[in-house]
Amino acid sequence: MAENILELRRVDKLFGDFVAVERIDLTVAEGEFFTIVGPSGSGKTTMIRMLVGMDGPTRGDILLRGERINDVPANQRPTCMVFQSLALFPHKTVGENIEFPLKLRGVLPHDRRARALELLAQLHLPEAYYDRRIHQCSGGERQRVALARALAFDPEVLFFDEPLSALDYRLRKTLEKELKDIQRKTGKTFVYITHSIEEAMVMSDRIAIMRDGRLVQVGSPDEIYHRPRNGFVAQFMGEVNAFEVKQGDDGTVRDAATAACYPRPDTVVTPAGDLMIVRPERMRILAPGETAEATLEGRVTNQYVLGPRTQYQVQAGDRQLLVEMLASGVDHAVNDQVRVGWSARDALLLSA
Ligand code: ATP
């Protein structure tokens, strides 16, 4: 079990009377890829500013390896931040940028160059880039240089503030995997903030979900996806079909739409609540004669091709369902009457 490198104890941050971040208890283990994710205004930037040392908490403590660092300024902390804006020196070369932290520490030119070339290779940048100026590099290349420079600092923790959000989709997808790969290879602790849950899921060992300045859930991507604590988390993690449910005196839970009965699941950590969620990929359009524990009839109103999968929008009475299935060759066209089915065990019972 890795040691905790970073810890927040009962941290609050107020701006005047406004509570931006409230009652945060959090630990990050050494060597972990930890991501803080949440919608706009949930308090991510406020959190990372306190973690980096650009701002102090109003109450509570921040500890690095057990030492209280609340009042230690950013430039005196053994941590380093990679910004969305990158903060590279645009007119200097890639090599000069990467070597900057080493120069500050008085590392000799020959050794600096050797380390910079090593980092270039690690970040899949050709050696020839050493002499290229930053303004001659593409967005993705600059991103790699910024990361190389951060690694040259050899910090205890690397913080990332939405570093990929300005890049196009393909490049972002490539860099997400590269970042994860570099984190694993270097064994460094990465703390990352993003509003993109997809990004968080691909890279992180653990994810903290924030809403209105509070932590709603902390767990592995798998835990959060399959065992969301409440309706907010479930819906933040991806598209869902939501149903109201009622619990009867006998302890069983029924949804009003299908009258199907859901056993109170003991595999789900959440207590049976007043909301039931079925993810689109857990629903299917039934073949003629096929049965399922819960079924609804409806009409296909839209069809979206997602590559290997197809998503169908189905109007069932006053309810709109999203059904996502592997493209099987048996396509269902818009206006087709269909039966949608799912298994009781694929339903998540949550508090709204
Ligand atoms: P985004 O994804 O849009 O950047 P965020 O999750 O990073 O949002 P924060 O920037 O941390 O959110 O802001 C959290 C809340 O605190 C917001 O309501 C914001 O308006 C408020 N806030 C942040 N900084 C200040 C400040 N310096 N003074 C007053 N209020 C602030």
UniProtKB/TrEMBL annotation:
<dbReference type="InterPro" id="IPR017871">
    <property type="entry name" value="ABC_transporter-like_CS"/>
</dbReference>
<dbReference type="InterPro" id="IPR050093">
    <property type="entry name" value="ABC_SmlMolc_Importer"/>
</dbReference>
<dbReference type="Pfam" id="PF08402">
    <property type="entry name" value="TOBE_2"/>
</dbReference>
<dbReference type="GO" id="GO:0016887">
    <property type="term" value="F:ATP hydrolysis activity"/>
</dbReference>
<dbReference type="GO" id="GO:0043190">
    <property type="term" value="C:ATP-binding cassette (ABC) transporter complex"/>
</dbReference>
<dbReference type="InterPro" id="IPR003439">
    <property type="entry name" value="ABC_transporter-like_ATP-bd"/>
</dbReference>
<dbReference type="InterPro" id="IPR027417">
    <property type="entry name" value="P-loop_NTPase"/>
</dbReference>
<keyword id="KW-0067">ATP-binding</keyword>
<dbReference type="InterPro" id="IPR008995">
    <property type="entry name" value="Mo/tungstate-bd_C_term_dom"/>
</dbReference>
<keyword id="KW-0813">Transport</keyword>
<dbReference type="GO" id="GO:0022857">
    <property type="term" value="F:transmembrane transporter activity"/>
</dbReference>
<dbReference type="GO" id="GO:0005524">
    <property type="term" value="F:ATP binding"/>
</dbReference>
<keyword id="KW-0547">Nucleotide-binding</keyword>
<dbReference type="InterPro" id="IPR013611">
    <property type="entry name" value="Transp-assoc_OB_typ2"/>
</dbReference>
<protein>
    <submittedName>
        <fullName>Spermidine/putrescine transport system ATP-binding protein</fullName>
    </submittedName>
</protein>
<feature type="domain" description="ABC transporter">
    <location>
        <begin position="6"/>
        <end position="237"/>
    </location>
</feature>
<dbReference type="InterPro" id="IPR003593">
    <property type="entry name" value="AAA+_ATPase"/>
</dbReference>
<dbReference type="Pfam" id="PF00005">
    <property type="entry name" value="ABC_tran"/>
</dbReference>
<dbReference type="GO" id="GO:0015697">
    <property type="term" value="P:quaternary ammonium group transport"/>
</dbReference>
